[in-house]
Amino acid sequence: MMPAARESLLDAAWTALARRPWPTVRMVDVAAAAGVSRQTLYNEFGSKDGLARALVRREADGYLAGVDRALTGPTDPRDRLTAAAEWTAATARDNALVRALLTGCWSERLPAPARTAAPSASAVPAQRRADGPLPSPTDFVVLVRDRAVAVLAGPGVPRADTAELARSCELAVRLALSCVAAPPADGRVADLVRGALCRTPAVP
Question: At what angle are helices 96-103 and 163-181 packed, to 10 degrees?
Answer without folding.
Answer: 120
